[in-house]
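user: Please review this fold.
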Amino acid sequence: MYLFLAFLLVPIIEIALFIQVGGLIGLWPTLGVVVLTAVLGTTLMRTQGRMAMGQVQNAFNRLDDPTEPLAHGAMILVAGVLLLTPGFFTDAVGFALLMPPIRIGVFKYLRSKVTITQFQMGGQAGFHDFRQGDSQLGDIIDGEATEVHPNREPTTGPSGWVEGPDRH
């Protein structure tokens, strides 16, 4: 129902605003303002989007909850779409979403409406001392490893477990 009302009311509001603003300043200045807000909005969206992506990456690197930076990034994306849509009402909403205080308020409102039952990121964090053993890990097998460099020739022949290249 809300989506239907949005698709019905937003174009009506935009048409009314175009008629009013066009009557006040004329056709060409009105079109110039629409193009200017699209260009300005795209520039602002890029800079704000880069900052939001940096915050998301920092949250992942710190293994913090990335919900808020992801929400800010999504709101910046919606703001960009609204700014690229011709119209004064959509531009006003788009510019509002580019302002961090508005995004924080929208995020707090949405967070109050959503219930998270569980959130887990990564595995178990922290240090584990494998020397003491752990029944959850199963048996620990001790072994040795040798680093093999692909550019070097082997110093010995085949191990005897497999046939060499000349024994077919």
